[in-house]
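Hi,

Apologies if this is the wrong queue. I'm a grad student, and the batch job for Dynein light chain from Vitis rotundifolia produced an output file that my downstream script rejects. I'm not sure whether the problem is my script or the file. Here is the sequence I used:
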Amino acid sequence: MGGAEEELERRSKFLSSLIQKKKATEQHDRLNVRVRASDMPLALQSRAFKCARDNLDAMPGKLDSKRLALALKKEFDSLYGPAWHCIVGTSFGSYVTHSLGGFLYFSIDKVYILLFKTAVEPLDH
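Support response: The file is valid. Your script probably expects a header line. Output copied below for reference.
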């Protein structure tokens, strides 16, 4: 009986993940978001998308990439602890090392956003 219960649990988790991905895709369409690369949990991704969308919508006219990057960094530092980094622009290259589960590269409208977390370790003097 244990094997059947384990299989049922496995299938249930799989179906739940499919439903969650479907909901995330619907949110992407509504916010005009396209995920380019990620290893971030969906809940954190959604938070990043909403924060970016809200800040972009609040900007009068031209994109202020520094302001958007700062807003995302502050949001994630306050909610998920330090040390988050954010790069925003219409054209940039990058090569970063990030903490596991702390990487998201996405576009919203024609703006590209790289958000990632690094480990904070005290310096030995």
